[in-house]
């Protein structure tokens, strides 16, 4: 009887250790989908406040803020003027960071600010067009706003404004 209890105890310990080991192994091999699709291509020497150029299967290469949140433009905007306010601005918050470096392929001279007519706050522009976040992008690497209503798009160095 003692032998059976001892054997059962040893087997229990082995199973617990095996389960712990397997759990760790699975965690190290598990890759989050967003991590697999997003690749940071900024220089390791870039300042912490640098915009980043990220890449995603859905959106291709795109501009993101220093925290990795995608930056978008609105096709209904005009150079130097935002046409997104009220509910639109709640879903598409303005990008307002004032001091940042830009990734390779971008020219810092293409970035400026406008003063919004609705609230008087400054908003960053790229080639004259205001930049936004998408409220449904919850973490770095999300590009859920790409192509929304065929008027919202991520920004990249190839972006041509109409």
Protein traits:
162 residues, three-stranded antiparallel sheet, alpha+beta, 3 helices, 8 strands, single chain
Report on this model:
The chain is α+β, with helices and mostly antiparallel strands and 162 residues long. The chain has helices at residues 2-29, 33-37, 87-91; strands at residues 39-40, 52-56, 60-64, 72-74, 111-115, 122-126, 129-130, 152-154. It has a three-stranded antiparallel β-sheet. Strands 5-6-7 form a three-stranded antiparallel β-sheet, with no helix packed on it. It has a two-stranded antiparallel sheet with strand order 4-8. The longest helix is centred in the N-terminal third of the chain and has 28 residues, at 2-29. The chain starts with a helix and ends in an 8-residue tail after the last strand. Residues 16-46 have low confidence and may be disordered.
Give me the secondary-structure category. alpha+beta
Query: Uncertain regions: pLDDT < 50 for 5+ in a row?
Result: 16-46
The number of helices is: 3
- Spatial ordering of strands, largest sheet: 1-2-3
Oligomer: single chain
**Count of DSSP strands:** 8
**Overall radius of gyration:** 24 Å
Shape label: elongated
What is the average of the pLDDT values? 80
SSE string, helix = H, strand = E?
HHEEEEHEEEE
- Give the helix level as a range of percent: 10-25%
- Beta-strand percentage? 15-25%
